[in-house]
Amino acid sequence: MEKLALIEVATTSLRLTLAEVSQNNYFVVYKELAENINLDKHLEDNGTISQTRIAGCIKILEYFKQICNAEGIMRTVCVASNSITKAKNCHSFLDEAGVVIGTKFRILTEEDENREIYNAVINTLDIPKGFIINISSHFTRVVAYSRRVLVDSVALPYGYNDLIEKFFDEKASNDDYAKKCVDFMKTQLADNVSFLRSADPESVVIGTSELFSAFGKLARKITKYPVEIEHNYQTNKAVFDQVFDFIKDNKAIDLKTDMTIKGVSSKTARQIFTGLCIAKAFIETVGFTQITTSTAYRSTGLLYEEVLPELVEKPLMDILKHSLQATINGYGLNADEAELRKSYAITLFKQLKIIHKLPRPFAKSLQIAASLYGFGKKINKQFFIRNNGAAILNSGVIGASHKELVIAALAASMENPTNFNLNEFIKYKNIMEAGDDEAIKKLAMLLHLAETLVMRPQGVVKDIACDILGNSVIVKLITNLDPKDPKIEVNKAEIEVFYMEKLAADFPRIFKKEIEII
Question: Does the predicted model carry a pTM greater than 0.90?
Fold first, then answer.
């Protein structure tokens, strides 16, 4: 397992991201540190960064280097945001920083930054068409893609700090301030982002930045959303407007001061609100109603480019599969056992479709539950099933909706497929539909059946054949696939048959049919 460090220098912050990279080039981020530096507030009259601020940045970078040494980092990638080139002495500063770290800093072009944001989103969200908007302190980046191909991108030189400096007036009302910001950004978008005029109505607005992370936290609190997962949070314009008005009209939130919104962001309420003004201008310009938030920022794109450079030309085709494998490798789960269990579970799902009658999306939840069924062992090996749910929901797995993750978590945490925890299900009622409780029971039963087949790690059962005859389901465990050796060892799978039959009494309660194992 190799350890990789990514160090980023921007005008507002210094960032350190540490990731573990497996031999198969799957990576898992395990530590992130960010320190605010606000270089643009420490420019001398001649346009150079003050020596005092440079010394402070170098000290932080020295800390980063010591952390990397202590972690046993084997590879370090250093980049600087293009915005830092506004300072006349940026090159001498980066040269000094490179000496401290031991690796030269690469200054990203505007095209580089747009591409890395696209790389991050396209390899972490299963959305075929989208308009990505990234709002930072000094830039608003818009990236359009279709059929997982980058179509066009623009970087507008206006972020929330620029609009604050341009329009903020302590005497003006919040409504007047918002109108000036929104109208200004609508003009900028109309004049400089021509590809918005031909926006595909099937596209989705994808917000990716610390601003949208803050928006997502507020939206989930206001709507009492039951899942605290930031990435791939899906909402709509009505909720966006609700959050916007909540900040604008809330007397407890003073936009005239530098107050922050506790538990939401280190950015000030004024910065968040101004950023949302930019987002509002964009959303109203494109006219879309669906909004998805992403926690995959530039750093994620840079990591993908470093670990899997081939993704620059051809993005991941199966995000969920890749994410599950990365999680299994990164957390030291038994990969062979997970693959066997998933294979058995999906085979049962396909062959018993006529009796479970679940649509295909439920197969994705089953795939997650089966692959990560042993994750609870990282908490308690003996009573791992009860811990599977929390482990799955906090695994960071991507490529599935929040509902699909919740269903996987609930199914994987049922110690008895017939003993359904209604109280646990009710917690997620806001994202569930009628019949989902019965679906979870069915997935749990399939999962338990699959689990009996991995009691021996050798993978004795090579295939499963299911026949549905009247009120009975006959499950045949096949132990020999060699056509040159037709010999059938009747007792070879007797252990698996023995434990599968223990589920036979509960099977009819869920599927309304008897089961026979041979």
Answer: yes
Nearest Cα to Cα of residue 389 among 406, 370, 364: 406
Strand order in the sheet with 472-478: 463-469, 472-478, 514-517
Local structure of 68: helix, strand or coil:
helix
Place of tokens 């054949």: 465
Instruction: Give the rounded percent of residues in the chain with a pLDDT score beyond 90.
Output: 86
Residues of the chain with pLDDT under 70: 482-490
36 burial type by CB count under 10 A (0-12 exposed, 13-18 middle, 19+ buried): exposed
Q: Which residues of 327-344 are buried (b: 16+ CB within 10 A; e: fewer)?
A: bbbbbebeeebbbbbbbb
Host H or E run for residue 206: strand 204-208
Outline where DSSP puts E strands in 22-105. 27-36, 75-80
> How far apart, in whole angstroms, are the C-alpha atoms of residue 125 and residue 117?
12
Tokens for 213, please give them.
């992370």
Distances (CA, A) of 370 to 159, 193, 379, 384, 388: 44, 45, 17, 14, 11
Backbone dihedral region for residue 184 (phi beyond 0: left; psi -120 to 50: alpha; all else: beta): alpha
Which pLDDT belongs to residue 456? 83
The letter for the amino acid at 67 is I
Interatomic CA distance for residues 8 and 16, integer angstroms: 7
The pLDDT assigned to 432 comes to 96
| CA angle, 57 then 61 then 66, to 5° | 150
Q: What is the 3-state secondary structure (H, E, C) of 367-382?
A: HHHHHCCCHHHHCCCC
pLDDT the model gives residue 487: 59
CB atoms within 10 A of CB 485: 8
- Domains along the sequence of the chain with CATH: 2-108 (3.30.420.40), 111-297 (3.30.420.150), 320-517 (1.10.3210.10)
